[in-house]
């Protein structure tokens, strides 16, 4: 069990270096990060900042390329995720609540199976088919897909991109996770955030989403955390020049004419 | 009022459900009886959430998909009645920009090849003027030709790729650009740059633009008129300031309520207000905020 006041998931001096065409790419280069129970933490950065790699290192789902260095530690409920045996990490994902949702939903859904079969796979722990059906419908409702009877009978290619990601989130929620790591999620997450005290680690480039959902924010650039703060401090008084430039771009995009000037302080 | 560049009348596109005997069966209408006009120099935004049929509509407007019924007309002339030369004119004056620039560029073609193919195909340059044209085109999208002309798509960042896709669309001096989520695969700082680029390009040359987007911030920044789509139907249409500033439809309101703002204070305030509204509504036994899945 977790001692009170300690983080649910934490990274200490995590380094992930890839070898690409003989060169070393320091995708993640010495990162410390904490996610406390019930907290929503954002990792923001632009493409190439290493934020996705960090997110995947936290769940030990690193891409299948040559890794030159993988060091540091990722603690989850007192265990080091990076040092775990494959069977242990599988058990961790299945029974102890470390779920991940990926960026590109189509490549993580089986194109030859209807949604009901894929959800059933995530619900293997349930006793009988009735229970699986009920739970499937409930999970879809939870991610805002109310038309579950129809959606369960569809194949992934028949769903829109947003619906696919909602299905993936539903699958990630199936084992009743303690923490959900989401890489570039759509806004379907906000419904789930409100409903349970689930901790979340959101990897995104969208500062709008960070402002909406996150309590704590880490800004990543070139494999390093350049700034971390609670969401209000970060938006009100960024300390780092790179953070400030990201915020300026976000405000340019969120600058509103018709919607009133309230959105741009 | 002059003739619109592109007009659509009662467009229906349904998928699936074809029975053996040619009946419509349980087909789903992705686009359901849509009418719209795009005028010269005007920016029309089509908004809606995923699955609302906006991308299907874009494909129909581009002539890339045939509607199940209804008619698209280019300067009053229906696409159905097009001859081959008509299509050539149409393809030249109505240009697409897609969401994912990486997959809309040929990975085996250098930037200059991509652009010169278009210029030569439409006889907009000769071998002699080609280099100058390419340099100018790249400059118009903010890229230095000396640096970028011999790059392959994979050697470019997402923003640079989208700039090339825009340069390719602009190469034929189109009257209308149909852009399907042109910003949504890009980083935020790059989105801001590309948005400014689109605004500057269209203001310079009386270019019509149909912008398909789910991002109301972008729509607000660039468009003159907005069409809000839901389950294949238009639920609200009008000038941008009116539709976004004073929406008449519940679904439009719920879209606006779901819009992300890059301000945590405002976001929290809004969420508290929303929770209060939900609590109040559940006390009085009504459904809270308009249900995104149900009928608007």
Short description:
Chain A is α/β, with parallel strands linked by helices and 265 residues long. Chain A has helices at residues 51-58, 86-95, 115-122, 129-142, 148-152, 161-173, 189-195, 207-213, 231-236, 241-253; strands spanning 9-20, 23-35, 40-44, 67-76, 79-80, 98-101, 179-183, 199-204, 216-221, 224-230.
How would the blueprint of this fold be written?
The complex is a heterodimer of chains A (265) and B (296).
Chain A: E1 9-20, E2 23-35, E3 40-44, H1 51-58, E4 67-76, E5 79-80, H2 86-95, E6 98-101, H3 115-122, H4 129-142, H5 148-152, H6 161-173, E7 179-183, H7 189-195, E8 199-204, H8 207-213, E9 216-221, E10 224-230, H9 231-236, H10 241-253
Parallel strand pairs in A: 3-8, 3-9, 6-7, 7-8
Antiparallel strand pairs in A: 1-2, 1-4, 4-5, 9-10
Chain B: E1 6-15, E2 28-38, E3 43-47, H1 54-61, E4 69-74, E5 77-78, H2 84-93, E6 94-97, H3 101-104, H4 111-121, H5 130-140, H6 145-148, H7 158-171, E7 176-180, H8 188-204, E8 208-213, H9 216-222, E9 225-230, E10 233-239, H10 240-245, H11 250-257, H12 264-283
Parallel strand pairs in B: 3-8, 3-9, 6-7, 7-8
Antiparallel strand pairs in B: 1-2, 1-4, 4-5, 9-10
Helix pairs in contact in B: 4-5, 4-7, 7-8
Overall description:
The complex is a heterodimer of chains A (265) and B (296). Chain A has ten helices and ten strands. By secondary structure, chain A is an alpha/beta fold. In chain A, strand 1 and strand 2 form a beta hairpin. Chain B is α/β, with parallel strands linked by helices. Helix content of chain B is 41%, strand content 21%. Chain B has twelve helices and ten strands. In chain B, the strands form two sheets. A six-stranded mixed sheet of chain B has the order 6-7-8-3-9-10, sandwiched between helices. A four-stranded antiparallel sheet of chain B has the order 2-1-4-5, covered by helices on one side. In chain B, helix 8 links the parallel strand 7 and strand 8. In chain B, helix 4 packs across helix 5, helix 4 packs parallel to helix 7 and helix 7 runs parallel beside helix 8. The radius of gyration of chain B is 21 Å and the shape is globular. The C terminus of chain B is likely disordered. Classes of the chains: A alpha/beta (265), B alpha/beta (296). At the A-B interface, helix 6, helix 8, helix 9 and helix 10 of A face helix 8, helix 9, helix 10 and helix 12 of B.
């Amino acid at each position: 069990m977790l001692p009170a006041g300690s983080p649910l998931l934490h990274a200490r001096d995590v380094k992930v270096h890839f070898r690409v065409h003989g060169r070393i790419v320091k995708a993640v280069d010495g990162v410390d990060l904490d996610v406390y129970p019930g907290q929503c933490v954002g990792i923001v950065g632009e493409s190439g900042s290493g934020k996705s790699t960090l997110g995947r290192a936290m769940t030990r789902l690193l891409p299948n390329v040559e890794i030159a260095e993988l060091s540091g530690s990722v603690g989850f409920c007192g265990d080091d995720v990076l040092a775990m045996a494959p069977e242990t990490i599988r058990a961790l994902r299945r029974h102890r609540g470390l779920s991940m949702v990926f960026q590109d939903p189509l490549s993580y859904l089986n194109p030859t199976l209807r949604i009901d079969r894929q959800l059933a796979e995530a619900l293997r722990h349930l006793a009988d088919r009735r229970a699986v059906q009920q739970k499937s419908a409930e999970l879809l409702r939870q991610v805002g897909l109310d038309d579950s009877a129809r959606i369960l009978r569809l194949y992934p290619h028949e769903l829109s991109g947003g619906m696919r990601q909602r299905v993936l989130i539903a699958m990630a929620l199936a084992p009743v996770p303690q923490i959900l790591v989401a890489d570039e999620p759509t806004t379907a997450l906000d419904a789930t955030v409100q409903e349970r005290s689930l901790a979340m680690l959101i990897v995104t480039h969208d500062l709008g989403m960070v402002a909406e959902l996150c309590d704590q924010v880490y800004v990543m650039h070139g494999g390093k955390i350049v700034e971390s703060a609670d969401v209000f401090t970060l938006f009100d008084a960024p300390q780092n020049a790179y953070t400030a430039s990201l915020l300026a771009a976000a405000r340019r995009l969120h600058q509103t004419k018709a919607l009133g000037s309230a959105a741009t302080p | 009022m002059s003739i619109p560049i592109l007009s659509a009348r009662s467009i229906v596109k349904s998928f699936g459900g074809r029975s053996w005997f040619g009946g419509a069966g349980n087909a789903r209408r992705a686009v359901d009886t849509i009418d719209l006009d795009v005028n010269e120099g005007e920016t029309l935004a089509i908004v809606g959430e995923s699955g609302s049929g906006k991308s299907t509509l874009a494909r129909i407007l581009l002539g890339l998909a045939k509607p199940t019924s209804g008619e698209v007309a280019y300067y009053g002339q229906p696409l159905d009645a097009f001859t081959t030369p008509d299509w050539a004119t149409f393809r030249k004056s109505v240009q697409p920009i897609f969401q994912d620039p990486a997959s809309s560029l040929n990975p085996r073609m250098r930037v200059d090849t991509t652009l010169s193919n278009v210029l030569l195909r439409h006889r907009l340059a000769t071998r002699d003027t080609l280099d100058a044209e390419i340099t100018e085109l790249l400059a118009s999208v903010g890229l230095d030709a000396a640096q970028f002309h011999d790059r392959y798509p994979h050697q470019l960042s997402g923003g640079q790729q989208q700039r090339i896709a825009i340069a390719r669309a602009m190469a034929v001096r189109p009257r209308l650009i149909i852009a399907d989520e042109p910003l949504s695969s890009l980083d935020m700082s790059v989105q801001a740059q590309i948005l400014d680029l689109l605004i500057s390009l269209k203001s310079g040359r009386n270019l019509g633009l149909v912008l398909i987007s789910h991002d109301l911030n972008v729509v607000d920044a660039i468009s003159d008129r907005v069409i809000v789509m839901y389950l294949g139907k238009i639920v609200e249409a009008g000038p941008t300031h009116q539709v976004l500033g004073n929406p008449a439809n519940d679904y439009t309101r719920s879209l606006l309520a779901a819009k992300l703002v890059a301000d945590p204070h405002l976001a929290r305030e809004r969420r508290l207000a929303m929770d209060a509204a939900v609590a109040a509504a559940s006390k009085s036994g009504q459904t809270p905020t308009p249900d995104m899945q149900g009928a608007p």
